[in-house]
Amino acid sequence: MDFNQELQKTFRICLMIAFSILASLAVYAIIVEIIKARFQPFSGYVPLQNPFLIRYILYAAAATQVIIIRILRGVFLRKNRQQDPEKLLGNLFRTSLITLALCEVPALIGLVLFFLGGFTKDFYILLFISLILMFMFFPRKNTWESWLNYHSSSPGSTTRCL
Length: 162
What we know:
By secondary structure, this protein is mostly helical. 78% of the residues lie in helices and 0% in strands. The chain has helices spanning 3-38, 51-76, 85-117, 120-137, 141-153. The longest helix is centred in the N-terminal third of the chain and has 36 residues, at 3-38. The chain is elongated.
């Protein structure tokens, strides 16, 4: 199999995973709406002593995802002089999967807030943040190709745009 076919196959797999994560975000919203309608008014499963403190801590954890994603992508996408195109592709694929998983974290935190205290608004805010992150880091073939071409000719460099 030549490299272009390998790139196509790897990118297609990454794209399917990205769409699966997007679908899971929709499933979270459906779950929230079903629980909210079924147990109206829904105030969570755990009586919270200090809900504002927990909300601030979880919002801070969600906000740090952007920083964590940027740092990890910079570290993981560093090119070693000995890397061949197949290794670069594997590295790009792995980094994309990790990034996509981290993009989902704010929505999961929102789901936790909903289950704990019934914070529907917080869930939707954090779901929206996840959607923005997914949009920012969604795999794009032309970006993959340009990154691979650039890094095949330029040893030791990193990227900010992927």
